[in-house]
């Protein structure tokens, strides 16, 4: 019998220690918080609450609709106090799902009307990490800070000495594709300044049909020169010139990769880099694939390419990392072990149903799911000490779960 006793698959996925590598702060805000903030701004006459409720609660959004929604989110969340609040809540939500390492990404924002600079925005994020109280947070491990705008001192392990749940939190600073070269460079320099405050790398994100690669390239090259790891939203739309250019700069990781073609996949697989951050629910909800059975996850997994399951925007897409593991396990188990790569939908669906009926279907077996979760350790941008601690967490959990 498999480990994990009689635990149902969803329960097992929840129990599994998980590593989240692709989560956007503002996309991970709870609906209830957004509604509360909208009500407040509605009462102040800044927005029309009734219209906003409809937008927040809508199910299923196209990619362009998501980016419209982010503009609304930013209107609701962009003051220092609220940034601190949402950061705290998002970390607590991930920890409640047994995420043991969270690499949270966010775009530092300038908002003169609120007296906000990119630096003060990040200070508000750091204050949010500090404010977490339902779980111990390992945030910054060593060093001193030279951040001008921050009065904060570097944090060691925050929280009480009593043994409680613990989450490692590290930050990625995102460059938004709407930004200028100068703004992107400012973000990279800020990331360097905040290295002692848990910032471990740079992300490029935002609406994939906006902005030119040449605009971001100087900042990304600068990050590389400074030794900051990079992850890029790559191939969210079929822009092959940009996909090539992105692969040319050898990022450590890429997110989404929905529209890579065979030649591009060959290159990725041959080089064994970059690691691919896979966001199943996000890709399906935004119509990147017409069906989950079309998703390339099984192909990459079979090719033993390093992949990491991620949520992307857990609030926006009403998902959790446990749910993403469940989805992978219950969808791709059959494909990975029994079907050829090119199998058609219909075969997937029929076999899926038959297998479900015959074996009260659990998909990918638990050993493999466990290894998949554990393998993300090597893809984190954390230092070796943290990786070692995460390895110990998985060693302990192995006895219970497999
Ligand atoms: C590209 C995305 C994204 O940075 O304000 N973002 N960029 N593709 C996606 N897939 C759907 N989901 C989120 O978080 C929200 C920002 O993250 C990026 C967008 O730039 C969005 O405005 P922060 O915390």
Task: Please outline what is shown here.
By secondary structure, this protein is an alpha/beta fold. The chain has 16 helices and 9 strands. Strand 5, helix 8 and strand 6 form a beta-alpha-beta unit.
Biggest beta sheet attributes: 9 strands, parallel
- Report the C-alpha radius of gyration, rounded: 21 Å
Based on secondary structure, the structural category is: alpha/beta
Helix content: 40-55%
What binds here, in terms of ligands, is:
N6-methyladenosine-5'-monophosphate
> Beta-strand percentage?
5-15%
Overall pLDDT, averaged?
88
Taken in chain order, the helices and strands follow as: HEHHHHEHEEHEHEHEHEHHEHHHH
Amino- and carboxy-terminal Cα gap:
10 Å
Shape: globular
> Which stretches of 5+ consecutive residues score pLDDT under 50?
141-146, 150-157, 334-341
Number of helices: 16
Q: What's the count of strands?
A: 9
SSE diagram, text form:
Layout: H1 9-15, E1 18-24, H2 31-43, H3 49-57, H4 63-77, H5 80-96, E2 99-106, H6 118-131, E3 136-138, E4 166-176, H7 181-193, E5 199-205, H8 213-226, E6 230-234, H9 240-248, E7 253-256, H10 262-271, E8 275-278, H11 280-285, H12 297-302, E9 307-309, H13 321-338, H14 345-359, H15 366-375, H16 384-401
Parallel strand pairs: 1-2, 2-4, 3-4, 4-5, 5-6, 6-7, 7-8, 8-9
Helix pairs in contact: 1-13, 2-3, 5-6, 7-8, 15-16
Bound molecules: N6-methyladenosine-5'-monophosphate.
N6-methyladenosine-5'-monophosphate (6MZ) binds next to α4 and β4.
